[in-house]
């Protein structure tokens, strides 16, 4: 599909990567974003589109931009525009959209809905779970709970998740207090601003293992998977510190990861196929767009941690660079309800992404905001801009992950070495940068391979 006009909604690194891919395939790109993303601005200018600085979560503002841009296709990047009905209003206005409606995106917005749907339709990979609407209900349960993961019941940008191991009897009172404190924090700090969901707190059985993400495109019937990618949510090296929206990814070489088998990959793909069908049956709507399964390989086998109703960030950066075939054609045909790409090829390379944020992210975004981004020569790496706004010729941070550095190699470790060297060239004027040099290193891979082998061995003994 050549010379198509595309309106892309969203202004982060994921959208920068998607926009780059679509322009490379001949699209004229227009963008709706609240920030003037330097990378997207360059793509828009180069392809002859229009940059609309407007709220991507406002249905009216996005529809107004679409009426001016007159696109052949609208592509939704982030989750919040889906949750807030942007896709619904675009469809009502007669536009072709690659993105989930507000009903379909409930699979990400409400973690309770996702778990309940999996249980009702006997979709494998579910976890035991409990949910609560009030502080009193949660505390009464948590006093008796053992090893659990405590989460906001709504998607909240990766914030608020706490995994607690309660195995030492002599620390039982201390662990109970930690559960209570964290549950209260979720209710008062994370969930207080969300009024679009009844359930407030989700408690799941605690599992350990190796995480991986499988993304896919779908028209509501066909599900075409992308390669497996591992994201790393913890802020600091050695997988410690607060959880974030993702500090970096590894992929490849090819479709699988060194620590994930074909069977484990296929398990995730089957979950995606099953849940797309279940959404159609349960809600009476057709799921159109991208859908992702964040998985964990455990002693129970692969289990579902959560769904995304879009491509992940930074997982999209890897995917948009390594899949072969026409992404534009796939998105366009999926939006028409007839996904005509049955399989994506994958380049025989490995890739690594390093996310760079100003110090303060994720818990003190006020401190991470308003810093000037500076960059040196990054050689053959590629940079994708995230929470950055172009103001008076300067790149100013918005308080979140500012830049994602992408590098390729024949192996993950080679790609990681390149990405690390490039990440050193990114800084903030008079402010510290935070990023993960360990992602993709020999230590990193060895740890994940050993963990995967261990959980498989324990499972075989059951």
Describe this protein's structure:
The strands form seven sheets. Strands 12, 15, 20, 22, 25 and 27 form a six-stranded antiparallel β-sheet that branches. Strands 3-2-1-4-5 form a five-stranded parallel β-sheet, sandwiched between helices. A hairpin with a 4-residue loop joins strand 10 and strand 11. It folds into three domains: 5-105, Rossmann fold (3-Layer(aba) Sandwich), CATH 3.40.50.20; 128-205, Dna Ligase, domain 1 (2-Layer Sandwich), CATH 3.30.1490; 210-443, ATP-grasp fold, B domain (D-amino Acid Aminotransferase, Chain A, domain 1, 2-Layer Sandwich), CATH 3.30.470. It is globular and about 60 Å long. It has 462 residues and is an alpha+beta fold.
- List the total number of helices: 15
From the 3D coordinates, which CATH architecture of the largest domain would you assign?
2-Layer Sandwich
Topology, number of strands: 27
CATH C-level category of the largest domain:
Alpha Beta
CATH topology of the largest domain, by name, is D-amino Acid Aminotransferase, Chain A, domain 1
What composes the largest sheet?
Answer: 6 strands, antiparallel
CATH superfamily of the largest domain: ATP-grasp fold, B domain
Work out the helicity level: 25-40%
Overall geometry comes to globular
Structural class call reads alpha+beta
Average pLDDT figure: 90
Q: In what range is the share of β-strand residues?
A: 25-35%
